[in-house]
Design brief:
Layout (H helix, E strand, L loop, with lengths): L6 H24 L3 H20 L5
């Protein structure tokens, strides 16, 4: 005879691992520290100021 399993526990376990995997993928794609975000924003502002300084009047 085969072993009896609880289908609800198996389904919940499968769903739990799928959610954990999706969360890990999202953390890799979107997870950045506050310092990294601030550094990127400061860099973008610096580049914008640099470009604005080189504009010619028409």
């Amino acid at each position: 005879m085969s072993k009896v399993i609880n289908l609800n526990k198996m389904r919940k376990s499968r769903d739990r691992t799928a959610r954990k995997q999706q969360a890990d993928e999202n953390a890799v794609l979107h997870g950045r520290t506050k310092a990294e975000k601030a550094r990127d924003q400061a860099q973008a502002e610096k580049e914008l100021r640099h470009l604005d300084g080189h504009k010619t009047e028409e």
